[in-house]
Batch of 4 targets.
Target 1
Amino acid sequence: MKLGDRLANCRKEKGLTQEYVAQEIEVTRQTVSNWETGHVAPSLDKLHALALLYQTSLYDLIEGDTQTVRSQSAVSQWIGKQVDVEYLSGVVLSGTVTDMDQQWTVLQLDKGNELKVINLEGIGAIVSKGGR
C-alpha cells in the first residue's frame, strides 16, 4: 500500500475530514488531498504530526513507501544523500550525509551549513528526502 493510501485510510478510520486534519496540522485541505492522492509527500515533521493525530507510529505510516535505514550495516548507502534523521526522542535533523560508518554519521545541516556528528545508537530512522 502506498503512503497516500495509508494516510487516507488512517484518516477515514478515525472518522476525520480532510478539513479537520488540515486545520490540526496547519496546512490546507488541498495539501492533505495531494498527500492522500500521492501527488506529493508530506515532510517528516508533518508525517510526525499525522502519526500523532492518527494515533499510530511514524514507522507504520511510512513502511514500504520510503527508504528507511534500520540496520547500521546498511547506512553507507546514504553518503551524499539529503536525508531527515529522526531520533528516538522525536527530534528531526535535515541535511546531507557527508561521512558515515557503523557507529556514527556526519550530517551537513540544511540550515547554517553546520556539520554535526551523530551517534547512530539514538537514531530511529534515516529517511531519504530525494525518494528512491
Target 2
Amino acid sequence: MSIEQAPRLLDYKGSLDQTPLLALLQSMQAQRATGTLQVRKAGEAFSLFFLFGHLFHAYGNGTQGEDAVFEPLAWRQGDYTFDPKSKLPTEETITAPTADILAEAKRRGVPGSDNGTGSRPAAAPNPPAGATAPPARAPEAVSERAVVSPQQPPAPQAIPEEGPPATELYPLPVGKLVYESLKTAFVDFPKLLRSLSADRLTGYLRLTGQASRGMILFYQGSLIESFYDGGAVVTTGRTAFSLFKNDVDRGEGSMDVIELSAEVVTAIYQLLTAPTILQGLLARFVDVRALLQYLQEEKIHGSLLVRAPEEMGIVLLRDGALLGAFTRGQPQLVSDPEIVTRLCAESKTRIEVKAV
C-alpha cells in the first residue's frame, strides 16, 4: 500500500536565533502537536502548553496567558525544547486561536510577531537518535485531560493542507454511539459538521462505503484530522477530507458518529500515525504478556497490534497505562487486554508495536 507523503514533525530542541518562537507556534499549529514547549534565555524561561496544536496555557516570569507568549516572541537568542510526553496542566489561560494571539501581538508592536520579519515555519527535521516523535496528535502528553474552553468553537471548516503519514486505517474502538448508520444520500454534510462542532464532539465521524473507508477525528468540536482509505492509498489532511466529502456528496455508504474520551482520541491519532517500532513478530515465539508488561514499564505512548488470520486486536497505551483493548469483531473498549492477547494462540498470528 502506498502512503501519501506528509510533512514531518518539528524537532525536539534548537536555538531561537535559527527558529524563533513565531515559527515554532506556526509549526505546532500546522502539525497539531501536543506537549510542552519551553523557551529559555539568560535565566528567563517560559512554558507553553499545546493540545492538538491548540495553545491553551502559558506561563513564565510572573506572567501567564497571552502575556506569557508576547515576551518570548521578541527573543532572538536562547533555546527551546519540546516534550511530547509531558503531563498537561489543568489550567486554561488561553482560549484565542494562535492567529488571533499573533495578530494582537502585532497590533501591540511586539517584535517578532510579524511574518514579514523573515521568520519561517520550523524546518521539521528528523528526531535525534533515541528520541520518539511527538504526535502532532497529537494527539500528546501524559494523562491528557479535556481542555474545556468557555468560548464556542467555530464550525470545523479549516482543513489541514496536509496531514501526517497514515500507515493504515485500522479498526477503531467504539464508545458512545451518538448517531448510527446515517445514510449519506440523506445527510446535509456541512450542517452535520456544524452540529458536531456546536455539540463539542470529542470522538470521530466514520464513513463506511463498499470500497472505501473514512474517518474525521474531532476534539471539543474542532476537526483535528481526516483519514481516508480508498483501497490502494491511505490519505490524510485536506486530500482525505475532500475524498470523504466526495463520497458523501455522491450518496455512497453510511456514517456513524462516535463519542470517546480525549485520551482515547489521542491514542487513535497515534495508532494511525505513529511509526512502527516492532513489526511482524510471530506470536508463537513471543511471550505477549511479557512484551505488554515491558511496554508498560517503559511508559510507552502507543499501541500493541495483534494480527490473527481472521481477526485483529489492538491494545492502546498512554504513558504505559492501559487505556483499553478491543478487536475488529468486539470494538467496545475493555480494560482487560486478554481479549487481544488470546489471539496469539493462533500459530500464524503476528505482533506489531507502534509508539511515538
Target 3
Amino acid sequence: MASRRVSGFVRKVFSGRSEGSNQSVPPEKKTLFALIVGINDYAVPAAARPLKGAVVDAEAFRNYLVKHLHVPENNIRVLLNRRATREKIILGFNALKEDVRIAKEDPILIYFAGHGMETDSPKGWECGDPENKIQMIVPHDFGKRHENSTVHGIPDLSIRCLLEGIADKKGNNITVILDCCHSGSGTRGEADDSSSLIRSVDVDVEVPPGLDESIRCACDTSRGIALPRESYARGAKSHVLLAACGRQETAREKGGRGYFTKALLKLLEAVGPENLTYASVLEKIGPILEQSPQCEGDNRNRILFNLRPPPAALSHWKIRMNKGNYILHAGAIHGVTVGDEYCIYPSPEASSMLGVLIVWDVKSIRQWTTVLYPQPRSELALTDNSVAVRSKVGKTFSLIFKPPSHSKQCLELYKEIGKKLGKEAHTGIRLDKSGIEAKLAMSVVTKDEIAFDVLDHSDRMDGNGNTRIPHTVSPGDELYSVLHAIAHYYRCLEYKGMTSGIERAVSVTFTELEYHSDNFDMRPVGRSLNHNRVVDISVEEHKRYGFKVINRSSYDLYMNAIYFDNMDFSIKVWYQSHTAGRFVTDPTIPKNGGSISVGYGDGGGLPYKFSLDDNAQIETGFLKLYLTSTNVDLSCISQDSPFKGDRRKGEQVKAHTLTEIWGTISLKFIQRRHRPYSADASPGLRPSVTAPFHQ
C-alpha cells in the first residue's frame, strides 16, 4: 500500500500540462527529469519585492527542454509564483527521489529563478564564512506567518541534504542551476522603477537552529559509506551547480529576463549540451554584465546532462601564442620540468601534429604557465583550439633494479628490462646503480611478476619495517605504464613550490567526526590528529574523519587538496576549487579568518573513511594542500592506481595572470590496523597543531 501511495503522489506531482499533447513526439525521447521553479510575485512584498523575469526564465527553460531536447512534458514539474511555496519546492525535490520512472543515473535537472539571500548562521551550523553567514533560496511564501511560526528561506545545507538524498537513490547525474543572488548587499536603496532588478532579499532574519531537522536527519551524513579502497574520501559528487554569480556579486534581470539564464540558453541552443562540459559552459558563454557565473562540483568536466567525460584520449593542455612566445597553460605546479617535450596538435581531436616544442631552462617555467621553444627553430601555426601533449619527461625518477639471485629465466628477463629502460626516456625513469638517490627498488620475483620496494624511510609503511608494495606487475607493456605512473607520482609529490610564506598564516586540523542529533550533521570530536605534520590513526570501520583549513592571511586563497597513496601510487583529489571559466572564481577560503570544512559542514560531501588492504597491517599516504591566490585547475595531477589497469587523464587548465602567491602544506598519514585490546593499538588523540610549510 505504501508504494502505491508514493507512486500516486509522484504521478500527481509530475503531471504535465495537456497543451501540445496531440503533437507528434520525436522518436528519441529524452529520459531527463526536471524540477523548474520561477518566482516573480511573493506573498509578503515587504519581505521580498516582486521581480519581472524569473517566471519568463523558468518557462523559457521548460520550453528549451521540450522543444530542443524533446523531454516529455510529464517529466517536468514546473512551480511558478504562488505554487512555489517552501513546502512544494521541498516536495518537488523529494518527488524526484521517489519517482519510480527515474532509473539510476538518468539525468535530473533542478532550475531555480527568483530571490536568494544571505543571513546569519544558526548556532551550531558550520559555515566557513568569516562573517558567519549562510545562503538561502527564497520561496513564494517567505515571511508569511503561520500560527506561531514564520516561513523561512531554504538554506544551502538543506538543499545539499535533499540533493544527496536524490543522488543516493538515482545516481549523481544531477544538474542544479540557480539564477539568484547569494547575498543581499546590493539591494538597499534600489529604485522601484529601476530598469535592472536584483534577485536578492536584504532583510534581517533569525534562522532557528532546528530548521529542517527532518531533512537533515534523513540526509544523515554519518551513514557508513563502504567506499572502495581507491576512493575512500569523496567531495561534492552528488551534483554539479551552475550559479548565476559569485558570492559577493548580484544576479540581475533586465527587460524581463535574467542576464544569466538568457546567456545560458543562447549558448545551449547554439552549441548543444552534447558539445559542452559544465566547466566549458563558463568558457564559452557570452559576456554577462557585472556577474561572474560559478561552477561547483567534482563532476564539472562531464558532458552536460550526461555521465560521460569529454572525448579527450590523452592528457593535454592549452597552448597559445602571446607576444611571439608559445605559452603552455601549465607550469611548475602541474609538474612541468626542464627537458620536457610536447607534441602540438591543432585540436584535441586532431591526429596530425603541428610540431614539437620543448622546455629549455628553468627560467621558462612559471608557477602555472611555461614558455616553450621549437626544436629545430621553426614557426608553428597555432589555432584557438591547439593543445600540447607531453611526449617526453625531462626530470627523471631514480630507480634501483635489483638482479635476481635465482632462476636463469629471471636473470634473462632482468637484462632485457634493464636494456629497454635505458632507451625508454619518455617514462621518466632512470636506473640508479648506486642507490644513493633512489626511492624505489624493482625486482624480478618470477618470470611473470615484477615487485617494488619503498627505499625512502620517510615514505615507508612504518618507517623501518615492511617495505614491499602489495602489488606486482607483469613484465610486458604494463610494466612501462606502471613506471610512467610511478614517475608522475613522485614528481608531483616532491614538488615544493614557492616559499611565499602564505602557508604560515594557514592552519589545518584533521579530526574524528561524530554525529550530533541537535543539528543533524557531523561535528569534530576531540583534538586535532595533526601532530607535527603527521596524522597517525587506528583504522576502525565506524570512524569518520574531516579536516578544516583556516586562512588568517590578508589574501583570498584557492585550495586544492590532493591525496597521494603510497601503497598503490594513486593520486586522488579530495577537494577541488570551483571554477568560473573566464570569469572571476569565488575564493575557497576568504581572507582574514575565512575557513573551509571538508567532509562536514560548509564544504559538503561525505566524511572520510579509511581502510586497509586485507594483508596490510600499516599503510601510509600524504595529503597535500595547494594554496594559491589564483584559481588553478589541478585535476591533471590525479591518477588512478596503475596496478588496476587505469590510466591517468588530464584536463585543460586555465590561463592565469594574477599575482603568484602560493604555497603547499603536506600531512603524512599513517593508518594502522586496529587492535582493540592492545595497549599500543592507537597512538591516541594528538594536540592541535598548525601544519607548517612542506619542506
Target 4
Amino acid sequence: MKELERQQKEQEQNADRVFDMQTAAGIDPLSRTRLTVGLNSSLNSVRGNSISSRRSSEDSLEDEGRTLRDFRHEVKEVEERFRKAMIANAQLDNERASQTYQISLLKDKLEEMEESYSQLQREFKEKTRENNALKRNTDKLEEELKLVQGQLNERDTLITEQGLVIVLVENEDGSDAKRALVTVENAQLLGSVQGSLG
C-alpha cells in the first residue's frame, strides 16, 4: 500500500517536471494538452491501480478477517469437543475405578465362598467317614444280635425238649438272684417252698 502511494507521488512529480520543461521550451498548447491528457491518463491509471490494489487489500483483509473468525470458531469447537471428551474420559475413569472396586469386592467374596466350600467339603468327608463307620458298626451289632437271638432260641428249645425250666434263686444276703436250670418238678417244689416261707 505504501509502495503504491510512493510510486504515485513519484509519477506526479515527474509529470510536473515535464510540464515545466515543456512550458519553458515553448511547446504549443495542443501538444501540451495532449501531454497533459496523457499524463492525466497515466495518473488515472496509477490511481485506478492504486484503488484496485487498495480494494484488493481490503478484500484480502476481509478474507483474512473471515478466515480468522472461522479459525476462532473452529478453535472454540475443538475446545468444546476436547472439554466434552475430557468429561467423558473422567466419567469413564470413575466408572472403571468403581468397576475395579466392585471386581475386587467380588473376588474377595468369591475367595471367602471358596474357603467356606472347601471347609464344608472337608466336614462333609469327615461326617461321611464317621457315618460309614457307624453304619459298619451298626451292621456288625445287628449281626451279633441276630446271632445271640438265634443262640437264645436254640437254648430255649433245648431246655424245653429236656423238660427243664429256668428259675431265679435269691441269695440269702439279698444280692441279685441267680438263674438256675431245674426240672419242672423241682421248679414247682421251689415255688411251693418259697410260697410257704413268704
